[in-house]
Amino acid sequence: MPEKQYVTYGQSGGCGCGCGCGVEGAAKAITGCRFSLSVMADDYINVILGALKNIDTAKVWQQTDKLSTVYRGKQIHVEDAVKAFFIRAFREGTHMTMEATFSRGCPGDTTAEAMMEVDDTLLNDVRDVHFPVNCKISLYPMGIPNYMEHIAKVVNHAIDLGIYSHSTHYCTVLSCDVQDLFDYIHYVNTYCSETLSHYIFEVTLSVNSPTAE
Amino acid sequence: MPEKQYVTYGQSGGCGCGCGCGVEGAAKAITGCRFSLSVMADDYINVILGALKNIDTAKVWQQTDKLSTVYRGKQIHVEDAVKAFFIRAFREGTHMTMEATFSRGCPGDTTAEAMMEVDDTLLNDVRDVHFPVNCKISLYPMGIPNYMEHIAKVVNHAIDLGIYSHSTHYCTVLSCDVQDLFDYIHYVNTYCSETLSHYIFEVTLSVNSPTAE
């Protein structure tokens, strides 16, 4: 019987503290987003393939498996590609959700499997598309005792922007135009990458839900 | 213009450290799960309502909004209700995913909106139903520097159980029978509630995906 290959997260620094002291500098610059689109319709495959045909993902590294797709690279291009995919998939009247996990700075991360050597010109122009979105967000600043004040900071910014709906168990609910939501996602990723060593920002978007509030 | 009502997470302890020092003891015993089922079919509403009719949620506090449902109470009853809902919604050949966020110990939590004064007898018997599930998991132990070793601990337990598929960016992928998966979720919630002050355990389940590996 072959020996089991266990994971050794938190040991790369050799400091024995279970933290991420050993993470390489270059990996810290990589923003990633793992996302899954759920289309509540029989022809969900066509909706997804149709959206993919109408976006340009040349400036992100990507991989798709049974559960989700991951984009990795510069923050602005990862955000641009995810936003374009969601907007291109939107169809009037069709209920659709997208679970998206933005993250940066994981101690277990690698410099491989990312596209960083690209310029800053965005590839997708979806600025003129507008529709209302409901959204729940949860921010997880890792490895620090004062994480709650960073969460309060980004929630209060949503209140300032007028896109905040309410706070509830385990998440904050936003309600706004899709453009405002992605502007806010950009703000959170920027704030976190400048302020935190490692964070995860979970976002679930929903359009055309039949559920009354 | 009315004054904005900002959130004040991390300030309840009055210690000024941005942590959760002020969380009440009783709130720490409450396990919660916020979940959304996505059914990739035109009649998704019938699938969800049909599942709800066939489960007993009398031992959890619950609330549903446009984005998700939350159950709160004793760990075993929250797990029992979520598991029964997912299993009763399953339909041969229909692609379905469920995003579930288990959590306990949030410093912003309240003792309200939970059902704790119930006995330990489970209400749903779905033990004999079997089907294969793909799943991605991410564990977030909050507020401590050595969080990576707790993540490694639960991932290595999945390896020991033989349900581990692979590690990838921002998550770990499991592949197993639905019963084994919920046994594992119970193990993680138990480990975390005994070991950590505050954790979030994100689980996304998928059945009948048409995507090849």
The proportion of strand residues of chain A reads 25-35%
Which structural class fits the helix and strand makeup of chain A? alpha+beta
User: In DSSP terms, counting alpha (H) and pi (I) runs of 4 or more, how many helices of chain A?
Assistant: 4
Q: Strands across the major sheet of chain A, in which order?
A: 2-3-1-4-8-5-7-6
- What kind of oligomer do you see? homodimer
**Which spans of chain A have pLDDT < 50 for at least 5 consecutive residues?**
none
- Main β-sheet description of chain A: 8 strands, antiparallel
Task: Walk me through the structure.
The structure is a homodimer of 213-residue chains. By secondary structure, chain A is an alpha+beta fold. Helices cover 27% and strands 27% of the residues of chain A. In chain A, helix 1 packs across helix 2 and helix 2 runs antiparallel to helix 4. The longest helix of chain A is centred in the C-terminal third of the chain and has 18 residues, at 178-195. Chain A is globular and about 50 Å long. The interface between A and B is large, with 75 and 75 residues.
